[in-house]
Specification:
nine-stranded mixed sheet, 20 strands
């Protein structure tokens, strides 16, 4: 049996070190290496991620893998027989997104997904279908990362209940897994994603049945799941449109649960252009759902690593709810930037300017963590433990950057103080400042400031660049002058670079963190908190969870469940009750069984539909 097959079947085939900090699982017999959370500011991760982004852009531009799906038959998965249509019993599905990062959080969510959870109106059983909403692996897709960060932990949390070791014979009804790719899944051109998900195979006790990166699933009680692949851009390719065109005639009269990779509606403004993402989504909803005679009742997405419920304000005209929950394991995003005012979303006819176009209004409700708690968590970036944790990751990059800035920005006026001489001496630091300010204005400040004027972006970038440049050049000049006073001659280049490098380690994180905190508290912008969570890694490991969804003939109920503080990477041990033919999870928390996931909202989200 190959390594690839052993991963998919969930078999324990060889001994590997766990790679978990603290060594709690070291030497256990597992088929993957549990990994700690991604260190986003470490030079190796930044370099590999940058390369992956560049290559993925080339892949999608010149060899979009979705185009290759056009040769496949337009089949959908018919799961309507997974429940007795005449019994009236509810059918359960689960939704999880942005998983496959640190082992602790990923394993906690995967274990909770595999077991029943308590509810106010009775037990909430595991879903017969698990929907994955994107970004199944971090920081970038490759086969080893999928094995260690996703398929391994999920197989360990829900191993196959086999009759005999080594046999692919499931004792009971299998649970089915369907995955939508996110941008991180696309970073190898979708190669590993296709290899893992787009065939009939086993990942632990889950069965994969999709053939494409997008899919349609028919469920009991006349529900359909439609998943649209819009990564790495909102462009909908020809084969994908042809696939949903073939499915469209089947869903008439049905209720549709739509899966998308990003919450495009959060970026829609009242301007004439709502953005390409919402434009493509509105077109899809009109052409393949409403025009087909089906009703869109729920839209699910991840990408933003928090929970938020976007509820329609006029339920008499619109029963569709939108839920954002990217809590599968990736670093927490803040919610302070979520709008308080209603979202005004134009439909496809309104965008086109046709008569009969409408605008639907939604209100963001029940964010988790709350907006106020998100602000409080953001400021913990300056807590000594958190601060020095991410400073350690950021230090090598900051030291080199500041050292180079100190050398390039260094200047001496000399004895000639004429205007021409001064301008000549200042020309190099002015050019360095202009380049640095441009980079920050175009590639950093917009992500923090959100929609704003060009002048605001340039001012933001210029002030931010000036602060870093003054710190680097000043530190380099100060160390050089200090050494010259003590020892003559002083190697000026070395002293200047060293002064800048020291300032980079000590001051760059402080300036960067202060800049982000100021934007977060002043502008309430969601992009700044996303970067915050990356830096404040201790905070970012909390607030993880998933959605458990009940489908009946006359209503759809969403139960958001999660953990504020899941066990960390070094808090898991091998489960003594696990065996090769047991369904017991391979790992349990050191302090005892994993507790039940807590409800994130006081009441579940109930969508009344009436008889099918």
């Amino acid at each position: 049996m190959s390594d690839a097959e052993s991963v998919l079947l969930g078999e324990r085939t060889r001994e590997r070190g766990s790679g978990v900090p603290g060594g709690a699982l070291r030497g256990t017999e597992v088929h993957f290496t549990p990994r700690p959370p991604t260190r986003w500011f470490s030079p190796g991760v930044l370099g590999s991620a940058l390369g992956a982004v560049v290559l993925s852009g080339l892949f999608t531009r010149f060899a979009d893998k979705r185009e290759l799906f056009g040769g496949l038959p337009n089949r959908f998965f018919d799961g309507s027989g997974l429940a007795d249509p005449g019994s009236g019993e509810p059918f359960w599905i689960d939704y999880c997104a942005d998983t496959g990062d640190g082992f602790g959080a990923t394993e906690a969510v995967a274990t909770a997904l595999a077991r029943p959870q308590p509810g106010d109106d009775g037990e909430l059983p595991p879903g017969a279908v698990l929907l994955l909403g994107g970004d199944q692996v971090y920081p970038a897709a490759d086969w080893d990362s999928y094995r260690d960060r996703f398929s391994g932990p999920y197989a360990a949390a829900h191993p196959p209940q086999l009759d005999t070791p080594g046999e692919n014979q499931w004792r009971g009804t299998p649970r089915f897994m369907f995955a939508l790719p996110g941008n991180h899944d696309w970073y190898d051109g979708l190669t590993s994603f296709t290899r893992l998900f787009c065939r009939s195979a086993w990942i632990g006790g889950y069965r994969t049945e999709q053939e494409r990166s997008y899919f349609a699933v028919k469920l009991p009680h006349d529900y359909w799941v439609l998943a649209v692949d819009t990564q790495l851009n909102p462009y909908l390719d020809g084969p994908q449109l042809a696939y949903f065109e073939a499915v469209r005639s089947r869903i008439a009269g049905g209720r549709v649960i739509l899966m998308v990779a990003k919450p495009y509606w959060l970026n829609v403004t009242n301007s004439a252009d709502p953005g390409d993402g919402w434009r493509a989504l509105a077109m899809f909803e009109q052409r393949f759902i409403r025009a087909a005679g089906a009703e869109l009742v729920l839209t699910l997405t991840g990408d933003d690593h928090y929970f938020a419920h976007c509820a329609p304000l006029d339920r008499a005209k619109n029963r569709e709810h939108k839920v954002i929950f990217g809590g599968g394991g990736a670093a927490l995003s803040g919610t302070a930037g979520l709008p308080d005012e209603p979202l005004r979303l134009p439909d496809h006819a309104e965008i086109r300017g046709d008569q009969g176009g409408t605008i639907s209004e939604y209100q963001v409700r029940s964010p988790w963590p709350s907006r106020d708690e998100s602000k409080r968590l953001a400021t913990t970036i300056f807590h000594p433990t958190t601060y020095f944790g991410w400073v350690k990751e950021f230090a090598p990059i900051a030291a080199v950057l500041y050292g180079v800035l100190a050398l390039l920005g260094d200047f001496e006026l000399g004895e000639d103080r004429s205007f021409g001489a001064c301008l000549d001496h200042l020309l190099r630091p002015i050019i360095v400042f202009a380049i640095f300010a441009t980079l920050l204005s175009r590639h950093f400040s917009p992500k923090l400031s959100g929609p704003c004027s060009e002048l605001r972006r340039w001012l933001d970038g210029s002030l931010h660049a000036l602060a870093h440049l003054v710190a680097a050049v000043g530190a380099g000049a100060a160390l050089n002058a200090g050494l010259e006073a003590i020892y003559e001659p002083t190697p000026e280049v070395i002293a200047t670079f060293a002064g800048g490098a020291i300032a980079g380690v000590l001051l760059a994180p402080l300036l960067l963190g202060s800049y982000m905190v100021a934007h977060h508290l002043k502008d309430r912008n969601r992009f700044s908190t996303e970067i915050f969570a990356v830096l404040a890694s201790g905070v970012g490991r909390g607030f993880k969870g998933f959605l458990r969804i009940k489908l009946t003939r006359d209503r759809l109920v969403v139960y958001p469940l999660g953990y504020r503080s899941p066990p960390g990477e070094d808090e898991w041990v091998q489960n003594p009750a696990a065996s090769a033919i047991s369904s017991e999870p391979w790992f349990i928390p050191r302090d005892g069984p994993l507790p039940a996931a807590e409800p994130l909202t006081e009441q579940p989200i109930v969508i009344e539909l009436g008889p099918a």
